[in-house]
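#onboarding

Welcome to the new folks! Below is a worked example of what a typical request in this channel looks like: someone posts a single protein sequence, and someone else replies with the predicted structure as tokens. Don't worry about understanding the tokens yet, we'll cover that in week two.

Example request:
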Amino acid sequence: MLEKTATRFSHVKPGDTPWRSDGLRDFFQYRDLGVAEATHGKVIAHLVRANQAPEQGTGWHRHEAQFQIVLMLKGWARFMYEDQETLVEAGDCVHQRPGIRHYLFDYSADMEYLEIVSPADFGTVDVDAVCAIPPPTPWR
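Example response:
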């Protein structure tokens, strides 16, 4: 018999889980990929896509997580990681080290990325501004 801490096989197809607007940010939509349930909360994997044009972005914050990557699937997003502006485009993968202060401040209308974080119930903590943020690009 498998212990509760063991992970389970999971296979989620596009129609199996809906896009939801009740995630961390109301200007994004999220689609769960079943990994948190399969790993008993050790890891979460979800898709994130633009739902509204960027106005103020995410604000400065950090995550209480042991591991986090973002794999940009479509479009682009501009982040500040500490005081470094970073353009993340389709095909790019970013490993966000634990505790890094960051701000997603601009993104394309077609932005969609895969985010994988451990643990699944990671925390988000607002932090003081590190530096000034460039203005977002208006959607046409």
